[in-house]
Write a structure and sequence with these properties.
499 residues; 16% strand; binds nicotinamide-adenine-dinucleotide
Length: 499
């Protein structure tokens, strides 16, 4: 039941100045790729937005060569303060073009405009501002005096936070003095390409950042390129594993930010109203397509019925629909492939005996939609309690004691995030200490700050992004006499050894 009806309030797309066709951003300009171009579409309507270039191995070579040239001739010679000036400039341009970026993100990814406008884009600017401040203070990162950049960073990102993941990758890399080749996901390349225009506006030296579009083959060619010194990947655990294998023994430094299956633990002394909002935010933010989503709700048994009832009431007020409408709470799923996966895992949930519930809501005929869904009667052995669904689907489990909550929360191959809801600070600290999760939120969920490191344990990956930890991933100690490893340099030193 909808308690309030709102008049439509769609954000205008008139602010966008999109090209019909985008090339690859290599050497400071858009160039045609060698592969067959593809379309990026709006997942809400399936309408085409723009034609996108498909980078082949030849294009990857060109992009890496461009980044190498920029590293050797310009970027590695600039002072930290000068690099910082460019980052500040980029941050300010992101703020100036914030509305345009938010509309483009909601069009291409179909996250709600509320989220792209109030969360994604402000955080993108914050990330650049934060790392701009670090660029001339690398001596204080914690790895000794005069830390040095690694060289060329290959960065591959997913579709759930296209622009924010770009900022998480590019800002620390540039602050630390590296140059970059970044590949956005094939379903959400648009904001990365608009960001390339921002780099032109900022007069960033040519080749310092190169953006190439394409699918998995392009990503594989990039991370396996011999002249790359650092690989930073955010995406699925399966692909992360393949990258770990292929980069092992190459000397490339690797950061992996992978999947998750976070527990959101609600104790019976929790402020329930606040917890309900936190549970909703935890799993329905960005349609649940969030690596750190609170997809497993662990509720203390004596408040289970109350929590589930209140949750159903709250879900009935969520507005599902046009992501560009300012009143929409839940947008579309990013792709048909992802929608099929969510449908398949939800069907398995029912087959395995969990009880499925969704509020009444009319879904549009066209596009990729999935109603917010809760599963109750879930046990730890159910697939929906173990596999990352990456959609607006919450699995509810119960516990009786803090020890049981901890055991169930840790009973997962992942370890990215967790939430705890309780009135007792001492209980929160004691439980948080025992959770094997990279980030633990207390009486809140999904809070991100550039100064705070983010990353996982176990199959959620390794390395940290954000904070000074995020910088060390792009630096090597200044005292070590190690030269940046490149394909060419490796060859030379082997030849010398043979002589
Ligand atoms: P994905 O692994 O399929 O794709 C991620 C990126 O990798 C895309 O750009 C894709 O084109 C590229 N890619 C695909 N195959 C590749 C290969 N063999 N070599 C190199 N690159 C390749 O993941 P996805 O479906 O786009 O994203 C969803 C996943 O990302 C979820 O599992 C989610 O949990 C995870 N994620 C993690 C974080 C985090 O910080 N831990 C953040 C966001 C998303």
């Amino acid at each position: 039941m909808n308690f309030l009806e709102y008049a439509p309030a769609p954000e205008s797309t008139a602010i966008l100045n999109l090209r019909k066709s985008y090339g690859l951003f290599i050497g400071g300009e858009f160039v045609q790729g060698h592969g067959t171009p593809f379309q990026t579409i709006s997942p809400a309507t399936e309408a085409s937005i723009a034609e996108i270039s498909n980078a082949t191995a030849v294009d990857v070579d060109l992009a890496v060569a461009s980044a190498r040239r920029a590293y050797d001739t310009v970027w590695s010679r600039l002072s930290g303060a000068d690099r910082g000036k460019y980052l500040f400039r980029i941050a300010r341009l992101v703020q100036e073009r914030a509305r345009e970026l938010a509309v483009a993100e909601s069009l291409d990814n179909c996250k709600t405009i509320k989220e792209s406008r109030d969360v994604d884009v402000p955080l993108v600017a914050a990330w650049f501002f934060y790392y701009a401040g670090w660029a001339d203070k690398l001596d204080h990162v914690g790895i000794g005096p005069n830390p040095r950049a690694l060289g060329v960073a290959a960065q591959v990102i997913p579709w759930n936070f296209p622009l924010l993941m770009l900022a998480w990758k590019i800002a620390p890399a540039l602050a630390a003095g590296n140059t970059v080749v970044l590949k956005p996901a094939e379903t959400t390349p648009l904001t990365a390409l608009i960001f390339a225009e921002i780099l032109q506006q900022a007069d960033l030296p040519v080749g310092v950042v190169n953006i190439i579009t394409g699918a998995g083959d392009t990503g594989a060619a990039l991370v396996n390129h011999p002249d790359v010194n650092k690989v930073a990947f955010t995406g699925s655990t399966a692909v992360g594993r393949a990258i770990a294998k292929s980069t092992a023994g190459t000397g490339k430094k690797l950061t992996l930010e992978l999947g998750g299956k976070a527990a959101n633990i609600v104790f019976d002394d929790a402020p329930i109203d606040q917890a309900i909002e936190g549970i909703v935010n935890g799993i329905f933010f960005n349609q649940g397509q969030v690596c750190c989503a609170g997809s497993r709700l662990l509720v203390q048994e004596n408040v289970h019925d109350q929590v589930v009832e209140r949750l159903k009431e709250r879900l009935s007020t969520l507005r599902v629909g046009n992501p560009l409408d300012k009143n929409t709470d839940v947008g579309a799923i990013n792709s048909r492939v992802q929608l099929d996966r969510i449908r398949q895992l939800s069907a398995i949930g029912e087959e395995e005996g969990a009880v499925r519930w969704s509020p009444e809501c009319t879904l549009p005929d066209k596009g990729f939609w999935f109603a917010p869904t809760i599963f109750t009667n879930v046990s730890t052995s159910h697939r929906i309690a173990r596999d990352e669904i990456f959609g607006p689907v919450l699995s509810v489990l119960t516990f009786r004691t803090p020890a049981e909550a901890i055991a169930k929360a840790n009973n997962t191959p992942y370890g990215l995030s967790a939430g705890i809801w309780s009135d007792k600070g001492s209980k929160i600290l004691a439980v948080a200490d025992k959770l094997r999760a990279g980030v633990v939120w207390a009486n809140t969920f999904n809070q991100f700050d550039p100064a705070s490191p983010f990353g996982g344990y176990k199959e959620s990956g390794y390395g940290r992004e954000g904070g000074k930890q995020g910088l060390t991933a792009y630096l090597q100690s200044g005292s070590a006499a190690v030269q940046p490893v490149t394909g060419q340099r490796i060859k030379k030193s082997i030849t010398k050894g043979v002589k």
